[in-house]
């Protein structure tokens, strides 16, 4: 896959749960090279399943740090063998699975700064980590540490106001606290703690790369307004933590030139820039090119909302991060567990297992569903924390069943009304210029997208996001090169492929949902106020 010599480019990396992936993007924003190394398949000696080790308690989940290092060796050697022209790389950036942490042993920095181009990275870094199996985002073993952190700052809401989220088991501060408590020797030997993103950037930099504001927002440690470490949170987690983390930096920072190791071993140009790496979710926001007022909805097994916020209002649900592309703004993430599996269940029950029958039901029922409202949570929902199915008549009486076509519309309208209500509770507002970007399986169903456009009162676009974190990282590398000039991210990526318009709001939609949305919110509160045993 040798490329024309004149093609200047940026590389975007993604150190995700199951693989390391790379794309090359040229100055016209075209992806012209991509490759990946799959951990389970290509590095079977590490014995991972889905890229991780699930421990006996079923709660602790880790990944071997040297597996990530070796994967980078393999992919770079593969690119070299295919004739990839590294001399044309202007800059690189990347993403890492959020929340995971890497523990560099005392003396590791010296090794990083003196890498020998004659040897692969994994051979040189073998003794550089005080914790060889790193906690990752799937870990849920730190409940005690979460409660302690919330107590230290005055409760869950206070922690959310400070750091953008209440305490979550997977968040890095709580993972660090657990390592300090259970393995104090390893903690004492640690000279630097990186996120997966800043660890990967450090490999390219040949020096410790700072944590960026956006991925740093997923730690329960960063004050998202002032963009400094929250002293009360650091103190609640572990001693000497600030010096082990180092100061955080803006996400668009050029952190330095690529290490001479890559210049000599692979032919990178000496002035190739490394732009701070960030988390995979923030990098996906960049890959989808969200702008102020936009919203992205991933309609998958669980449904995830990405929001662009100017003035966030942190709450007990959802997460607020610093924006990866605009240091003055924010992004929010909301996750809804009852996504495609719930849609498929109602399809099977009410549309004879047929998506075309499901779509026909949406087309044959009116906006607002004649006042019928439904809540469908077969597994315990995260946003809000509730389980069960609840149906309400136009008079707000709870009823045991709906006609099949009403049931289908109640499900889809309810799912999208919930998303709008909870987005607005975090400070999101639909603007006249708002675009909704829909991805995931259900984004192929035009009738579902029509309901989405109607409920939000905004046009819905579809976009290919197969490599959004990777491509977003390459876009961010270009932005890093231009960031010193004050050029906005949207200007840098204006040549990138445009999303495709899929649905626009129906006439009268705003009036219908202006009345229905407050009613839905009140009914949700009514369900939440019921005794918990009635919700099963």
From TrEMBL:
Catalytic activity: D-xylulose + ATP = D-xylulose 5-phosphate + ADP + H(+)
Keywords of the record: ATP-binding, Carbohydrate metabolism, Kinase, Nucleotide-binding, Transferase, Xylose metabolism
Enzyme Commission number(s): 2.7.1.17
Domain Carbohydrate kinase FGGY N-terminal, chain residue ranges per copy: 132-287
Domain annotation Carbohydrate kinase FGGY C-terminal: ranges: 296-479
Top EC class of this enzyme: transferase
Domain of life of the organism encoding this protein: Eukaryota
Function: Phosphorylates D-xylulose to produce D-xylulose 5-phosphate, a molecule that may play an important role in the regulation of glucose metabolism and lipogenesis.
Similarity-based family: Belongs to the FGGY kinase family.
Listed name of the protein: Xylulose kinase
């Amino acid at each position: 896959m040798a490329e024309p010599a004149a093609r200047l480019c940026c590389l975007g990396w993604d150190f995700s749960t199951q693989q390391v992936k790379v794309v090359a993007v040229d100055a016209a924003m075209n992806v012209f090279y991509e490759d990946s190394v799959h951990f389970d398949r290509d590095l079977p000696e590490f014995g991972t399943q889905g890229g991780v080790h699930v421990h006996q308690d079923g709660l602790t989940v880790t990944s071997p740090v040297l597996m990530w290092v070796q994967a980078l060796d393999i992919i770079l050697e593969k690119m070299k063998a295919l004739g990839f022209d590294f001399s044309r790389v202007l800059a690189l950036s990347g993403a890492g699975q959020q929340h995971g942490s890497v523990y560099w042993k005392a003396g590791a920095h010296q090794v990083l700064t003196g890498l020998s181009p004659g040897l692969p990275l994994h051979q040189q870094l073998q003794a550089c980590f005080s914790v060889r199996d790193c906690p990752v985002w799937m870990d849920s073993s730190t409940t005690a540490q979460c409660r302690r952190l919330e107590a230290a700052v005055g409760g869950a809401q206070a922690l959310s106001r400070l750091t953008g989220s209440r305490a979550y088991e997977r968040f890095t501060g709580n993972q660090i606290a657990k390592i300090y408590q259970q393995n104090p020797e390893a903690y004492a030997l640690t000279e630097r703690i990186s996120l997966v993103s800043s660890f990967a950037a450090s490999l390219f930099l040949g020096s410790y790369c700072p944590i960026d504001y956006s991925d740093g927002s997923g730690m329960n440690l960063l004050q998202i307004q002032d963009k400094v470490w929250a002293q009360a949170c650091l103190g609640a987690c572990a001693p000497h933590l600030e010096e082990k983390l180092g100061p955080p930096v803006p996400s668009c920072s050029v952190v330095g030139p690529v290490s001479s190791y890559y210049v000599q071993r692979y032919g990178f140009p000496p002035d190739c820039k490394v732009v701070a790496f960030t988390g995979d979710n923030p990098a996906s926001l960049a890959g989808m090119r969200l702008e102020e007022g936009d919203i992205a909805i991933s309609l998958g097994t669980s449904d995830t909302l990405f929001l662009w916020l100017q003035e966030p209002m942190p709450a007990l649900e959802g997460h607020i991060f610093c924006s990866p592309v605009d240091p003055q703004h924010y992004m929010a993430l909301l996750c809804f567990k009852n996504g495609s599996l719930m849609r498929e269940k109602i399809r099977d029950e009410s549309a004879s297992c047929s998506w075309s029958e499901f779509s026909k039901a949406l087309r044959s029922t009116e906006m607002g569903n004649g006042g019928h409202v439904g809540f469908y949570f077969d597994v315990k929902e995260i946003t809000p924390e509730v389980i069960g199915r609840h149906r309400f008549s136009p008079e707000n009486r709870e009823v045991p069943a709906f006609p099949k076509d009403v049931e289908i519309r109640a499900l889809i309208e309810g799912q999208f009304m919930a998303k709008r209500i909870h987005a607005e509770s975090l400070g999101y507002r639909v603007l006249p210029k708002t675009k909704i970007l829909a991805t995931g399986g259900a984004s192929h169903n035009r009738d579902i997208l029509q309901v989405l456009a109607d409920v939000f009162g905004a046009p819905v676009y579809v976009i290919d996001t197969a490599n959004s974190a990777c491509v977003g990282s390459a876009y961010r590398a270009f932005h890093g090169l231009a960031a010193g000039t004050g050029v906005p991210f949207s200007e840098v990526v204006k040549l990138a492929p445009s999303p495709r318009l899929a649905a626009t709001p129906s006439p009268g939609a705003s009036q219908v949902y202006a009345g229905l949305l407050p009613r839905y919110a009140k009914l949700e509160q009514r369900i939440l106020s019921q005794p918990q045993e009635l919700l099963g």
